[in-house]
Design a protein that fits this description.
By secondary structure, the protein is an all-alpha fold. The protein is 78% helix and 0% strand. The chain has helices at 3-16, 23-34, 41-58, 60-76, 81-110, 114-131, 147-159, 167-177, 182-208, 216-244, 247-265. The model has no long low-confidence stretch (mean pLDDT 90).
Amino acid sequence: MDILHIIVLALIQGITEFLPISSSGHLLLPSGLLGWPEQGLAFDVAVHIGTLIAVVAYFRQDIIDLTQAWCLSTFRQQHSDNSRIAWFVVLATIPAGLAGLLFGEFIENNLRSTIVIALTTILFGLLLGWSDRSADTKTKTLTQLTVTTVLIIGVAQALALIPGTSRSGITITAALFCGLQRNEAARFSFFMSIPVIVLSGGFKTVDLLGQSSVNWMDMALGVFFSAVSAFICIHYFLKFINNIGMMPFVIYRLLLGSFLLVWSLY
């Protein structure tokens, strides 16, 4: 891959991985509009590693606290709010893991068309806007999560296997519908992304091991630029989310989805 392609695609992946605007929809644009080659498996692994580094680095203290609380809860039966949140992250990951095993191949082979991505970008953008209508009045925090709420958010995350849905978008949507504050909904979405990225990146890494040659410089650049862009994206998204709300992202999704829809038809 050309270095320009690597930088642009890594930045797109890093930014769109955590914003509720669909990374798959954006990754269509360079190849479709500019004729760029599809990013290969090695690059997919690289940007997964980069986004994982970003979210772990940003929430490093939260991850340490949650992990310690989970260990105390598991091995010493010392329960706390942090241990409940840690267990809830695990619980919320199960639906996506099962859906990936059962339907991943079917989705990969049948639902990766431009028109599907266009329609899901629009549909789930509208749902995001609907969930955000009364977000200013919602007061629930992560300590008020319940098993039912977490399973709803987890099932929503499983829907993100469908291209164009946006993992962060659908999980934030579900969390807002369940009454969480915007900032808390986003934080839980980011926590949930860690095991999902690990699982997804792990499967891709296994496939990568079967390849005879890998351009390690391309991978290193992909990791670096996706990690930096994702870290910055998380920081500013959490900083401004309570002030700007979700409507800018909803409008952007509707514009992007409409563009992709027209493109797919003509």
